[in-house]
Amino acid sequence: MNVLILHNRYREAGGEERSVAEIxxxxxxxxxxxxxxxxxxxxxxxxxxxVALLAGGLEPxxxxxAVRAHRADVVHAHNIHPLFGARALAAARHAGxxxxxxxxxxxxxxxxxxxYRDGRVCTRCGGRNTLPGVRLRCRGNLPExxxxxxxxARQQRRTIRAVDHFIAPSAFAARRxxxxxLGAAPVAVLHNFVADEQFAAAPPPGRGSHALFxxxxxxxxxxxxxxxxxxxxxxxxxIAGSGPDEARLERLATERDAPVTFLRRIPPEQMPxxxxxxxxxxxxSRWDEPCxxxxxxxxxxxxxxxxxxxxxxxxxxxxxxxxPDRDVDRWAAAMRALWDDDSERARRAxxxxxxxxxxxxxxxxxxxxxxxxxxR
Length: 376
Known about the structure:
alpha/beta; 45% helix; 14 strands
């Protein structure tokens, strides 16, 4: 089976770029001919991006030619906005390819893709009604918000008509996307996966030197909850990441005299070292995260994870390990209990590793992906 992967890279690389690379690697390792066709928002300029959104994408002929040249049986699209758009999917379909679209977030409706603003989950936009995002200027200014609102509304139905099968990375995300835009369109749930060689043979010995938060430092990730819980519980916390909320979080840690160490941004290849020094991982997200790599990688390492009751996190870590996202007292108590009780921590570590093997293995993902590619 020949596969053409389409992806519009974001201005700042994240988990979606990793997913594209990992899927391409997995398919090639299983003998498929794979080509990746990417465009980048970082080089497009805001004016060109706005034009592309309103037009439904630019240069669809390039995609049609790529399908024919590669003899692609399947086009596996990831982010298509702003430069590919619905026109690229229609062109690929016209060239004879089956179209599968991987929805890693909520951009079918939400201009900022995360269904979150003003400190809380936001689902004001729904279906083709993207006017709330324009009125609230979710893209930061009115011209860009208007371009995204109009572009997403115009392209939504064309995108759904062009796609044979959608993929969502969690059951929660599949339900939300169906409610927001997809309706009865077919959606398969494929959790993100971890490469076979990244799974630990057994949970790490010892307690580790701290709890670990890893992620971009933005308000919706909830790192301040972890800092306040660290201050209240006395459990040392290491924060790996950078972002616009960094200065505020550092001030908060200082003001509360919290035992927090800021590790700054750690390159992906060095994250295994950071995890090897951790007792457990905390993920107090406030937005409805579909399936974050930081969580599934920690579990594959054999680390317990405490996560918020948001999005796909409960189906990742299990109901025993979730907490209300803003309840600092509950987080402090859970962190202290896990830090103090070696036997409980070992039990939870074993559960996390077993759950990761069951849910996030390569073979499970590949088998489910082939089912989607071949479905009729």
